[in-house]
Each structure stands twice: as structure tokens, then as C-alpha cells.
What does this fold into?
Amino acid sequence: MRIEEFDVVIVGAGLSGLRAGLELSNKWKTAIISKVFPVRSHSGAAQGGINAALGNLEEGKGDTPQSHAFDTVKGSDYLADQDVVMFMCEEAPKIVVEFESMGAPFSRLESGLIAQRPFGGAGFPRTCYAGDRTGHALLHTLNEQSIRMGVTFFDEYFVIDLFIAEGKVAGLIALDISKGELVSFRSSYIILASGGFGRIFKRSTNAVINTGDGVGAAFRAGVPMQDVEFVQFHPTTLYGTNILITEGARGEGGYLFNTKNERFMVKTAPKAMELAPRDMVARAIETEIIEGRGFENAYVHLDLTHLGSEKINERLPGIKEISINFAGIDPIEEPIPVQPGQHYSMGGIGTKFDGDYGETDLSGLYTIGECSCLSVHGSNRLGGNSLLETAVFGRYIGRKLIEKGLPTKASSNKIQAVEDNAIKNIERLLKVWNENKGKKPVEIRNKMGETLNRNVGVYRIEEDLKKAYKNLVILQQDFLEVQVPTENRRFNYGLIRTLELRSMLDIAEATAFASLWRKESRGAHFRTDFPSRNDNSYLVHSMVFRGREGLEMKTKPVKLGLFEVKERKY
Ligand SMILES: Cc1cc2nc3c(=O)[nH]c(=O)nc-3n(C[C@H](O)[C@H](O)[C@H](O)COP(=O)(O)OP(=O)(O)OC[C@H]3O[C@@H](n4cnc5c(N)ncnc54)[C@H](O)[C@@H]3O)c2cc1C
It folds into this structure.
């Protein structure tokens, strides 16, 4: 077996992994592992923009990092950790200017300053953008910088499991997809930046690679999942395909209409209207559909026609293309049919209460980006804050580790033993899968996605959640004997999809479990049987562990103190 040794290994070449790599490769022997070529990472799909209180527009002049932090905490329904939110918002202007100096092609105002647009839940127009292809612009910028800095990449390597020696992370096992061989990466620092897991749902705006492999690997190593009941359903995904129609479309002035030609957001958020936070807009749309005011009982209209062709062509060219190519609708002429769809994972790899941001309870293991739960988004993320999170904490973690210095390694005998054991476990698993006995992975995956869509959606209730949890436990059993050829491992995408499913099932099960446990409504988690927020019992982070008898719940306090916990009104 091939063995690679590094000071630090980063899993993921999206914005968070690349930004951390840029910082670390300057000083230490650093590897970035990615299951796809870096610029195919999901960050490239981000559309609407990145938040920073720059105050570049006249109506944004009074904006400050403090107002940004306040909006973020309020948007999170007060579950976000306030210290980490404040840190992110203070770093935001610096991080956007840094992107600019690296050459990111932001859209501009007449004055030459970076253009900004209004976004949901934001008190000021603070979302900086590159048309409606912001992620593409930022990802290519960081990738170019990484090439310039000579970062060592392992592209098309699939990370399977971590191994631990003497209580500390000691490395990971990955599959070299093109050669079909298992490779060990030894390192005393591992940063998981492996992205979200939206694909556990059947209908999602996420790329097919968003399967939560890093979350699964950490969970199997004993690190809990935090706040996984909070799933963001984006209000406006294209009916039929669930491709994202950016919040930027409403930021530029788009309206939502039901079959009665009413701007129904007036009932939910009379002041913010279409620019209320996503959880509220998604619920408002779902209610219109449930109560019979949706078109074909399935969608509402997002109308941009009044914006005019010049604005649409300049600021929303990607949305125009998507609508024409995937729905046959030109938004200059007609409204776009939209419905809510899974979009973002507020929860993720659990972090340490009193550690550095992104530090986990497993010594040497850190996590950043969408796979992590730091928690800057609490129970509902504001649009434009995720791109920000990736870069802020990518840079932060790089600097923080260098400041800490390299840890002492476990003894090489011990590392060798745990590495051999990790390989043996994977080989054992692959042997069972190759026996051609059980169900096909696609059957299990389809059932998992349908279960979550049907029973763990925008509106939730005990009876449905119990059903979902029970189904997922059965699917976990089915998965033990899943059937996939594993002998020829070169470019074996059947095997890759099955390894992904292994983590997805754990996350799906934990999501249903945590949603059942949280008997209140907060942010994106709405229980029709417990429709109010209950701060007395649930102003805490959920932490799901795998115990001997199945899943177990613990809690972690929320860091408060900067902003008073209040009712949300928009
Ligand atoms: C359609 C869409 C539009 C969005 N628009 C915006 C927006 O405008 N503004 C905003 O703030 N947010 C937006 N978001 C959210 C934001 O884009 C993501 O949260 C963010 O880009 C995630 O970055 P990341 O670095 O954490 O992960 P990703 O960019 O998803 O990268 C994950 C990396 O991990 C690697 N990886 C995963 N598993 C493995 C494995 N097993 N082995 C090896 N490598 C692995 C992948 O190859 C990839 O390189 C949007 C999301 C979607 C779905």
C-alpha cells in the first residue's frame, strides 16, 4: 500500500479547503485531497454573492459588521454562537478586499467600487457579487492562487475513513479513483472541508457530489453531528428540476405571486416581503401550495418581468439561461415557476465548546465550510453568509494551526497498527458488498431520498418523523449487505456511489432522529405539533452520537451575550 506523509491534510478543494491550503502550504508540507478536480467543487455553483458590510451603495452607508452580526443572529433564530458570528462579520470586509486583490472579477458600481445587492434578512444591501456566478469567480480565483503557490493536490482521490492513534487523529485512508488503489495519508492535522450533504434528499439544489463523506468519516470516528435537524429549504428552486433560482433575483426586485395574483409574502413579512429570511419565505410558499393557491398544486410564480431586459441580462444572466434551458421560459417575458427545495445544511461536524473555531473533540481534527457546524448560521442561514464562512474560516484555521505549531506524533508502531486495521476494515466491507446478495445501492438511495422529502420537509410532525426514522433504520440494515462489484476498483463509480451512501445513511438517520428530538419550531425546523420556539428547553445545540444501542442525543450550550434573544419579526 502507498503511504503519503504530510504535516497537514485538507479534505476538500472547494472555497474553504483551498483558502486553508493557501495559508498552510506557505509554511508546511500540505496536501489537498479532492474527489473531483478542484474547480468542479460545489462552491463553483454559488450564484448570488458574498456578504460584507462595505457600505458601497448610498442606501448601505450605515452598514457595519455589528449590524451584519445582528442580522445573522436574528436570522439564525438565535441559535448561532454569537462570538463566532461577530468574528466572521468583522473579517468579512477584509476577506472580500482580499479576494479583490487576488483578482476576483466582482461586478462594479459606476464609481468603480464593488457592487452590492440586497439579500434576505439583511438590514442593508451588503451582498457583493459577480453577476449571478459569484462562486465560479471566487473558486477560480482561489484555484489560480493555489497553483501559483504550488499547493500539492491529490485530485480524484476519495477519502473513506480516518484513523486514530493514542487518542489523536493520525491519518486517513483514501481510494485513488484512477488507479483503484487504497492510499494512506499520515498526518497529525486533518482539516475536513468536504462540503454539504444536500443529496440525502431526493430534491435538492446541490451537486450530486454533495454527499457528506467527511461528516460520515468523522461520525464513524466518534465525532458527533451537530444541529443536523436544521435543513435549509431554499424558497425558489425551478419547478421540475429544483435548480436554484438565486435569492439575488428577489434582491434585484423580483416578486412572488400565487394563483390569485397576490404577493402573498405580505401575510408573513409585511415589511421585508420577498426579502424575509429563507425559512419564512419557504414556509409561506409551501402554505400557498398546501392551501390550494399554488399553480398545478405544486409551485408559485417568481416574476422578474418588470425588471426589464437590461437588468436581467446584466445581473441575472445565469438565471435567464437556466430558465430557458430547463423550463423553456424566458424570465424577461414570463414568470418563473418555483417551489422550495433542499439547499443547505446548517448542521454538520460537531465542534468543541471551548476550542478554537472549527476544532473538534478529536485531537488534531478540524472542520470548516459547509460540512462543519461552527455554528455561524444557527437554525437558519442568511444568503451570502456561506461563501463568507468558507473563506473566513479557511484563512483563520490556516493561521491558527501555524500559530499552534505541529503537534507531537503518535509512535510509528502505533500508527502502523491503526492504519493496518483501517485498511482491514475497508477490505472486509468491500468483500461483503462484492458477494452479490443484497439490494442495489440505488434502491436504498432512492428510498432514503423519498423518505426525507416526504417526512422531514418544510413542515414536520411527530408521526411522519417517526416513520422516517424507522424507515432509515431499516435501510441501514439493508445497506449492510448492499450489492456492488468491488474487485475491479479503477474508475469504479458504482463503488464510489456506495461509499457515499454509507455516510449519507448515517446523516439521514441522524437528521430524522434530531428532528424528532427537537420538540419546538425554530428557524428552518418547523414542527406543526410544536409550532412555537421554546427557549427554556431547546436553546441548545443538538449533538448526535452513535451509542451501543443506536443513536444518542447530547446537547451543547449556545454562546450568547452580544445580542438579546427575542422574537423574530420582519
Ligand atoms: C446552487 C447553490 C448556490 C449557492 N449560492 C450561494 C451564494 O450565492 N452565496 C453563499 O454564501 N452561499 C451559496 N451557496 C452555498 C455555498 O455555495 C456552499 O455552502 C459553499 O460553497 C461550500 O463550500 P465548501 O468549501 O464547504 O464545500 P464544497 O465547495 O462543496 O467543496 C467540497 C470539497 O470536498 C471534496 N470532497 C467531498 N467528499 C470527498 C471525499 N470523500 N474525498 C475527497 N474529497 C471530497 C469535494 O471534491 C470538494 O472539493 C449555494 C449553494 C448552492 C447549492
Notes: Residues 454 and 464 are 8 Å apart (CA to CA). The chain has a mean pLDDT of 97. The radius of gyration is 23 Å. Residues 493-517 form the longest helix (25 residues).
